[in-house]
């Protein structure tokens, strides 16, 4: 199987899935992994869930472990440009040839699973491929990000050293429930007996997560009670701060923007401190690992005239965090926001936080297999009803060109909303402007 054939196969599975409300949804994934030899049980894992920040927190944990000399696997979703990004070992994405070889090897297990249930979905296949890749790479530990929710997510078959629920907000309400309380219960479903569960969730979610952890026999570790964050003088395109726990003080300089990343770093550190001694990285390794952090598409800033920021803020919680961080980091700036929103999202609530900024808006769309964007005209109507200056331009590259052309040299263009529009325009930017634009 060539990579092109592997890619075509994966794209053919995008619309295949069991209902996300189906209580027996894990049966297919369990059978699939059994046919593969249960690769997910052959190395220690760390399980990272939550509404926002789980990808960043998982990346921070993996960076600290790698800096400590541990061969580290990292599975995150969604990807920005290529499905290869979902499977990383020591920070490097899987090679196309390896991806194709593993998928070819998985075909008998896929056939056997299909005979019992249905063909494994796009998400299940990529997750299983990551598990298998980590086994073949002989990782010392793998950091696994939850897909959606927790209780019935395919990742909930691992037996982690520590579980994490970063926070809880309204997202995937069609699957997880209509209230924060319902969503918290679903996300807390990753709690397991004898496994610490770390969370930075606020009330009312925190009490629910603590209750479910206790019922499951898991030790609940609230980040806000065991870690404090202290600001330090920061550089222009990064941030410095200290995280103090009961065990140590970590002096951190992150080469990434966004005040929310400080909470993610504290959550990552508290989780790392729960690991057994042979896996736990030293303070120095944590500081070194986070000091070299790269998180594409999370308040990723390229200075210029105008500067540009790429951030996947596809739900209300992420949007609120981004808008707050933009105002804090660039208090004197005006923003030109390019936004596309997926049809499954609450467009009104995703857009609302940005309307408090000094900003203009261009609403656009995206083209992705199995995904539908909210009409730019509908987004425009939402903005105009809120008294905002806005335009609708369906072609995202044209939207970016117009935003750059019309923005003052001191302004900042912000590409946000759907993963697909951020991935498309980030790839265009890197191809046409290049890494030289990064500070």
Summarize the structure.
Helix content is about 40%, strand content about 15%. The chain is α/β, with parallel strands linked by helices and about 450 residues long. The protein folds into two domains: about 5-290, Mur-like, catalytic domain (UDP-N-acetylmuramoyl-L-alanine:D-glutamate ligase, 3-Layer(aba) Sandwich), CATH 3.40.1190.10; about 300-435, Protein-Tyrosine Phosphatase, Chain A (Alpha-Beta Complex), CATH 3.90.190.
Strand order of the largest sheet: 4-3-2-5-1-6-7-8
Shape: globular
In the CATH classification, which architecture of the largest domain applies?
Answer: 3-Layer(aba) Sandwich
Mean pLDDT: 91
**What class, by secondary structure content?**
alpha/beta
Low-confidence stretches: none
CATH topology annotation of the largest domain = UDP-N-acetylmuramoyl-L-alanine:D-glutamate ligase
Characterize the main sheet: 8 strands, mixed
Number of domains: 2
Number of strands: 17
CATH-defined superfamily of the largest domain: Mur-like, catalytic domain
Question: What value does the Rg take, in angstroms?
Answer: 21 Å
Q: What fraction of the residues are assigned to beta strands by DSSP?
A: 15-25%
Share of helix, binned: 40-55%
| CATH uppermost class of the largest domain | Alpha Beta
* Tally of contiguous helical segments: 16
Q: Could you state the oligomeric state of the chains shown?
A: single chain
State the separation between the terminal residues, measured CA to CA.
40 Å
């Amino acid at each position: 199987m060539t990579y092109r054939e592997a890619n075509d196969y994966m794209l053919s599975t995008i619309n295949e899935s069991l209902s996300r409300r189906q209580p027996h949804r894990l049966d297919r994934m369990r059978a699939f992994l059994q046919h593969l030899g249960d690769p997910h049980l052959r190395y220690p894992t760390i399980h990272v869930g939550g509404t926002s920040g789980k990808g960043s927190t998982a990346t921070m944990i993996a960076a600290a472990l790698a800096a400590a000399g541990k061969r580290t696997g990292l599975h995150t979703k969604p990807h920005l440009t290529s499905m290869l990004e979902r499977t990383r070992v020591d920070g490097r994405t899987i090679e196309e040839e390896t991806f194709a070889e593993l998928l070819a090897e998985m075909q008998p297990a896929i056939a056997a699973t299909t005979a019992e249930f249905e063909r494994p979905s796009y998400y299940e296949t990529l997750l299983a491929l990551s598990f298998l890749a980590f086994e073949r790479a002989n990782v010392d530990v793998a950091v696994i990000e939850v897909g959606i929710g927790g209780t019935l997510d395919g990742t909930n078959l691992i037996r982690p050293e520590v579980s994490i629920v970063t926070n809880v907000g309204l997202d995937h309400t069609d699957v997880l429930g209509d209230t924060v309380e319902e969503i918290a219960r679903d996300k807390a479903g990753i709690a397991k007996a004898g496994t610490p569960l770390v969370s930075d969730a606020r009330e009312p979610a925190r009490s629910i997560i603590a209750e479910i952890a206790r019922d499951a026999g898991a030790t609940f570790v609230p980040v806000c009670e065991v870690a404090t964050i202290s600001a330090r003088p920061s550089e222009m395109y990064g941030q410095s701060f200290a995280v103090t726990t009961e065990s140590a003080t970590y002096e951190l300089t992150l080469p990434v923007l966004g005040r929310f990343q400080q909470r993610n770093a504290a959550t990552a550190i508290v989780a790392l401190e729960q690991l057994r001694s042979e896996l736990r990285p030293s303070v120095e390794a944590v500081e070194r690992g986070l000091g070299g952090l790269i998180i594409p598409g999370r308040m990723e800033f390229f200075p210029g005239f105008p500067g540009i920021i790429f951030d996947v803020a596809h739900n209300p919680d992420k949007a609120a965090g981004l808008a707050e961080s933009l105002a804090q980091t660039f208090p004197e700036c005006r923003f030109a926001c390019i936004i596309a929103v997926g049809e499954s999202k609450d467009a009104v609530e995703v857009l609302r936080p940005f309307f408090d900024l000094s900003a203009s808006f261009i609403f656009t769309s995206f083209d992705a297999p199995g995904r539908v964007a909210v009409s730019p005209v509908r987004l425009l109507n939402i903005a105009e009803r809120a008294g905002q200056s806005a335009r609708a331009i369906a072609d995202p590259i044209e939207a970016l060109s117009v935003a750059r052309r019309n923005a003052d040299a001191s302004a900042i263009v912000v590409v946000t909303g759907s993963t697909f529009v951020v991935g498309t325009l980030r790839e265009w930017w890197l191809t046409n402007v290049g890494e030289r634009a990064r500070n």
